[in-house]
């Protein structure tokens, strides 16, 4: 048994989701000996170099930072080994080569945004909402060769509200996941966690592949429940879309009305002031926030004030 604060930990992550986990480790007094994050990239109108969210936080905390272009680079691997980590923690980062994830004596653990083995893959939050799940959760697990298949350490489930978007689930999940990560690190240090091989969990697997353009296109022949879940599951980004006056129009949020539609699926009606309803197979999708291509996001009232729809 060890004191978790004595463990030498290397943290790997890039986006805002990962910052919550790194901040929780720092606040708990963990010994973060290095932070590995993405290289700075040009972005915005001026194409100025932008730091990742994790790097910004790490700089504020005075943590040692590594930004490799390639994780197999021998110079990076050699430098990483000099940190003599007992444990590596990965949150929302790239796939690691075995030479990296197998380096520390206690291995490498990951925080994944689902109740594994369900929703393995790149977009677990999106697909749980798109599929209309009533519950999701967070899993900490040990990395191994195949993605998201390592032995489960701890899990915490929570409910998804009927109209909650993927973005809202994401914001709650990053805090729940951060707390679970700290509990996991403490449990590993104290040797109180029983690892569970995922193959022991006999269940039908649902996957969470990357989101592509085709995933975002609304098929108005589907049910209102299916379309409403698609809109929620792709909000706020990348957004479910349809065509309006020949232009791509993202529906960022919506409500639904289940009734026999008076118009064909994909057709719409509006009073020109307060509502824009699209017909689906068994009712209407009532758009509440829209974004027409090349324009900013607007409430339906703002949208109808500024645009005439033929």
Structure description:
This protein is an alpha/beta fold. It folds into two domains: 4-200, 3-Layer(aba) Sandwich (Rossmann fold); 213-306, Methionyl-tRNA Fmet Formyltransferase, Chain A, domain 2. Helix content is 28%, strand content 26%. The protein has nine helices and 15 strands. The strands form three sheets. It has a seven-stranded mixed β-sheet with strand order 5-2-1-6-7-8-9. Helix 1 (16-27) packs parallel to helix 6 (166-190) and helix 5 packs antiparallel against helix 8 (224-233). The chain is elongated.
Topology:
Blueprint: E1 8-13, H1 16-27, E2 31-36, E3 41-43, E4 48-50, H2 53-61, E5 65-66, H3 74-82, E6 87-91, H4 98-101, E7 108-112, H5 124-130, E8 135-142, E9 152-159, H6 166-190, H7 213-216, H8 224-233, E10 240-244, E11 247-258, E12 268-270, E13 276-279, E14 283-292, E15 298-299, H9 300-306
Parallel strand pairs: 1-2, 1-6, 2-5, 6-7
Antiparallel strand pairs: 3-4, 7-8, 8-9, 10-11, 11-14, 12-13, 13-14, 14-15
